[in-house]
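Consider what follows.

. . .
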Amino acid sequence: MTELNLLVVDDEPLAVERLQILLSKQQGVRVAGTAHDGETALRQVDELRPDLILLDIAMPGMDGIDVARALSGREHVPLVVFVTAFDNFAVAAFDVAAVDYLMKPVMPERLARALERAREHPRRAGPAAPAPRYVEEFWVPELHGLVRIGADQIDRITAERDYMRLHVGNRSWLIHRTIAKLEEELDPALFVRVHRSVILRRDTITGLRRDEAGHWNARLDDGAEQRIGRSYADNVRRMTGRG
C-alpha cells in the first residue's frame, strides 16, 4: 500500500486532534504536520511537501477554498480533501479540483474511501493540471451526501433568488450561485441564456416560434415552450446562425 504523507488543517484544535486519532487507525498514512490557519498551511506545504491535505473550509482569514486556489502553480501541489461541517461549499470545492469532500463528523469508513481515492489519483504531487475553461460537473447536496451532475446532463437552469435550480429530467437540485456567474462558467457551445432567469442546454431546443404578440418562444424537446426575453434574442439568433 502506498504511504500518504498528510497535512491536517483546521482552525479548531479539537477537530485536528479527532482527525489525528482517526488517521492513526488507518494503514499507510503518516501525519507530517498540522496547521490552524491558511497562511501557516501554505508554509507547511512548502516545508513538508505532503502528498495530501485534509483541509477545513470555514476558517477565519484565508479559508480552505482560498488555500486550495493559492496552491495552484506552486512548486509542490498536494492533493486536497476538504473536511467541513457545511454542505454549501460543495460546488466551490470541486471547482478547485478537490479529490473528495468529507462532512463532519468524519466517519472512519468514509475517511478510508477518501484516502483510497487520493492513492489512486493520477496526480499525486507536482504542478497542478490546468483547470478546464468551463465547469464540467457539479457536486450537489442530497439527504445523505453529495451527488455528481455532469454539466452536459443538465436540461435547463432556472433562477430562484440567490440560488440556481439545475433541472435533469424530472429531478432538480439547488446550488448557491448567481445566474450571471453561472453563465460565465458554462460552455456557450452547450448552453444559451434565453431569459434573465433561464439558461437552456442548446440541444434541448427543437425550434423557435413567434406568437401573436411578437414574442419569440423556444420549443423544447419535451414539448414545453420557454419565452425568450427581448434582451436575450440576440443570443438565440447567434445560435441559429442568423445573428
